[in-house]
Amino acid sequence: MNSRVEVLARVRGAAVGSISGAVSIAAHGIAAGGMPPCEAAVVLLLAACAAVGVAVAASRVRDRDTVVLVAALTAGQLVGHTTLGLVGDHAHGVGLSAPMIAAHLAAIVVSAGVVHGAERACLRVLAVVTRTVLVILTPPPVDAGTWSPIPVYRAKLSLWLLISAAAGTRGPPTLA
């Protein structure tokens, strides 16, 4: 697994687990007339939703596969509903009515959009952080100066003296 897939899996697992718990508490609070669930139900719900989140994070994610996400959110909602229905003091129990099913389906659709947005935002933020860290940690270029084997200035007089000293009309000494 590469780091991008691992990050997406962790973000998806955390989002699915926490959204499942939040939607379950909100929905059952509304269904109970604004009364929050008891402490035992909340603790059991947190454990169940954490298990759902860990299971989703452990699964392999391929570039935000929507079918897998919707299935995970559905499982999380079902686990949350069942947990609060069994442990909580709600009159409806574990049964599902038509309005409750519609509310859960709407929550799944909205939650899928939120998770996709969170995944996209996480990848963009990580890309910006990675680029920033690379810019900060890149050592500055070393100024070695500009040196070249060819001299920039050539003395024309000394060159002319060298050439004229070696050549010319000089010959062997004359016999006088």
Please give a handful of descriptors for the protein shown:
0% strand; single chain; 176 residues; mainly alpha; 5 helices
Structure explained in plain terms:
Helices cover about 70% and strands about 0% of the residues. The protein is rod-shaped, with a radius of gyration of 38 Å. The N and C termini lie far apart (about 100 Å). The chain is an all-alpha fold and about 180 residues long. Helix 1 runs antiparallel to helix 2 and helix 1 packs parallel to helix 3.
Structural class: mainly alpha
Query: What is the rounded distance between the termini?
Result: 100 Å
* Element-by-element helix/strand order: HHHHH
Mean pLDDT score, rounded?
A: 78
Strand content: under 5%
The whole-angstrom Rg is 38 Å
Helicity level: 55-70%
Global outline:
rod-shaped
Largest sheet: none
* Unreliable stretches: none
Number of helices: 5
Total beta strand runs: 0
